[in-house]
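ok so heres the complex, two chains, lmk if somethin looks off
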Amino acid sequence: MLDETEEGHVTEDGRQIGGVLMEMRNITLRFGGVVAIKDISFDIRKGEIRAIIGPNGAGKSSMLNVISGFYHPQEGEIWFKGARRKPMKPYQVARQGIARTFQNIALFEGMSVIDNIMTGRLTHMRSGLFSQALWWGPAEREELENREVVERIIDFLEIQHIRKTPVARLPYGLKKRVELARALAAEPELLLLDEPMAGMNVEEKEDMSRFILDVNDEFGTTIALIEHDMGVVMDLSDRVVVMDYGRKIGDGPPEEIRNNQDVIDAYLGVAHD
Amino acid sequence: MPEQLLFAMEVTLNGLMAGVLYSLVALGFVLIYKASGIFNYAQGVMALFAALTLVGLMDGQVPFAHLINATFGTDVHHFGWHIPALPAILLTAGVMVVFAIIVERLILRHLVNQEPIILFMATIGLAYFLEGFGDVMWGSDIKKLDVGLPQGISETIDTVTYNWFGYGFFIDRLDIAATLVAAILVVTLTLFSQYSKQGRALRAVADDHQAALSVGISLRFIWVLVWSIAGIVALVAGVMWGAKSGVQFSLSLIALKALPVLMLGGFTSIPGAIVGGLIIGVGEKLFEFAVGPMIGGATENWFAYVLALVFLVFRPQGLFGERIIERV
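and the predicted structre for the whole thing:
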């Protein structure tokens, strides 16, 4: 693991990696008698793409749910931006600047694409209930400003053509992209992606990889992602955490992970399809 | 113009306006059902409670007077002041907001992730509690509610229609006022839900709780908000019905009339509640007018339910409700 005091470095492709943004310390999560996560520590640095990989049931999604406040670990500490985080509700985590997507897509099916993405702006809207209700001065200005941010993201992710389409009508790949757009609309400091490429065909996977890299590159967004597709993970990420049966068995840059014997035994060496 | 047709027109107009009042009650149901999937059985009692509170405040009644007198041997009934209608209505709206907060704290919060039927049962309990509580707080006698809305036959419409058709329509001015108020309420609610931050959050919660949490929406806040709005809609319905027929227990039974309206319009649609209410209102008045005399009248008691039943057979999701398609 990198030294915490290190003030960051520049990657080969010229991206700035900063200090520690989030740190998980000795996290243990149990469901009754089942230990989903066992004493895991790792950190996420500003500006990097951090991957969490592991075979099915390794506890990756549980870890993402711990970070986003959906699960509360029995033991361990979560540090965010240099301060220890109290146990929080998911909506409070979101308001801290941590946005996420879900493995099996959680969009507002009945709403249009643009309305879905606008909900991502909720944490940035300040005007009160009263002026909102009357659609008055500040509320109107705010709505327009937020609309601009959303339009930029729509352009960025190339989904202009479906802006007004109800989400329920979209194909799977586009839904995934809309979900990413909604998370981006929050302009998060940390973006959590739960299997962003699950169930996609090769072309969709390539598109999504490109978007993830572009987001990180253009907005400098820190990204933590869970992924099954090993090839994709190795190409995308700066550092990789490997989990197996709730334990951490590897942590480091992709090339190091590739040569880690434990990882090869647990994951790479075993056909898991 | 033949006299029968003129009668029918007058009946239709009256039906439309009665329908508006049904719509008002149905609207309260739709709001809560949309945002939380709860069928709020207490909606009708909330209208009664709101109306009772409004009358009590306007007349300067001492709340729990009966209880206080029985416990302390005192004899207090009135504060001796009268509050004008508008401030009293605003105060009552405040009471309904407090009521929403209490409901969230004491009931909803503890029933998160429970089956809808459990929540439904909880609202039945809430209905009976609130009914008794209203009685204890304000007394169970029939009260007159006068918030200064115009009442009685509209002379203008009577004269105008007399000049046109040679037959004056009888339209109650209270019904006209109710229609206007309902229209304003519906337009405001629609704008609020479509274009405001909270409205969008409200629709988001209605759609997917998990996703709503992930974009920073507090479910509790939204529930309080929704129950507050439903409480205020109940207040408006209570004022209109109370002004028409006095504030009394039977006011809470208008909720039963809202059921067929909801089946017609769909449980999840605000426009559906409006159109459903109008159809029921017009339908039952016209049916009574046309068919009633042949079969001995009193068709208004059951017509709405039969119509709803027919709808259930042919279009179970209602006119505007979301089509339920399960993926196999």
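quick notes: Chain B has a mean pLDDT of 87. thats all i got rn
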